Amino acid sequence: MRLAVVIPAFNEADKIAATVRSVPDAVDEVIVVDDASTDATSAVARTSGRAVTVVRHGENRGVGAAIVTGYKHALAHGAEVAVVMAGDGQMDPRDLPALIAPIVDDRADYAKGNRFAHPAVWREMPGSRLVGNVVLSTLTRVTSGYRHVFDSQCGYTAIRCAILRALDLDRVWPRYGYPNDLLARLHRAGARVVDVPVRPIYGETWRSGIDLRAAVHPIPYVLLRSWGGRLAAEHRARG
Predict the structure, then answer these.
(1) Structure confidence by residue, pLDDT tens digits, 43-59
(2) Judging by DSSP bridges, how do beta strands 81-84 and 3-9 pair with one another?
(3) Rounded to whole angstroms, how far apart are CA atoms 66 and 175?
C-alpha cells in the first residue's frame, strides 16, 4: 500500500529536520505542511537530508487545516494510507508499523494512538495535559459515538484514503478540537476505528504550543456541533 506521512508544523525549525529524518524509509512520501510559520520551518525541512514535499500556508489556519491540506495532497498523489506525525518529535516512529497494521490487515479504516494504553503515560505526560486529555476523551466518547476509543487528543493517526474520500474535508474543524470533530465525522461515514498503544514523548525541553484560552474557548462548541451532527445523521438514517 502506498503510504504518505503528513507532518503539520508551526514554528518547528529546531525540530522539523530530526522529525523528517526519523520517518521510516518504507514511507513513500513525506509531506510537511508549514502553517505560516514565522521561523525557517520550511527551509529547514527542505534541507533535512531526505526527499520531502513542503506545502506552505500563506496564513495561519490551524493544525486541523494543515492536516487537511496534507490529506488532500496525499489523495491527489495516489496514497492509500495517510499517517499524521507532529512536527515537534513527540511521536515515536517505531510505533508506525503497529499503527498502520490494522489498516493493512483490513481490520480498521482509522487507527489512532492511545498513549494511555502505554505504561509510561503516568510518568511522561505532564499533569495538566493528563487531566485535560482524560476529560476531553471521556466527552468525545459520547459525542463521537466511538465508546471504545480513548486519548482523543492524540494526533498520531493512520487513515485509509478510501474513507478520506467519503468525508467533506473542507468542513472539518480547522483548529484545536480537530480530532474530536473528525471522529464524529468518521462515525457518520461508518468508519472502523481502533486504538493502538503508542509511546508518550515529552522530555525535559517539552513546551506546549497550545494557547489555553484559544483551546478552551471552542471546545464546547466543537463537541456540541459534532454530537448534533452525528445524532442528526443517525436520525436521517433511521428514516
Answers:
(1) 999 999 999 999 999 99
(2) parallel
(3) 9
**Domain spans, the chain:** 3-125+147-175+190-206
Mean pLDDT of the chain: 90
Q: What is the mean pLDDT of residues 136-144?
A: 90
Query: Which CATH superfamily, name and number, covers 3-125+147-175+190-206?
Result: Spore Coat Polysaccharide Biosynthesis Protein SpsA; Chain A (3.90.550.10)
Say what the pTM is. 0.89
Backbone φ and ψ for 83, nearest 5 degrees, come out as -105, 145
Compute the CA torsion angle 176, 185, 128, 5 (nearest 10 deg): -70
Widest distance between CA atoms in the chain: 55
**Between these two residues, 97 and 214, which has the higher pLDDT value?**
97
Grid cell digits, residue 234: 443517525
Supply φ then ψ for residue 208, to 5 degrees.
-85, 135
Residue in the structure block whose three cell numbers are 499533569? 127
3-state secondary structure of 112: strand
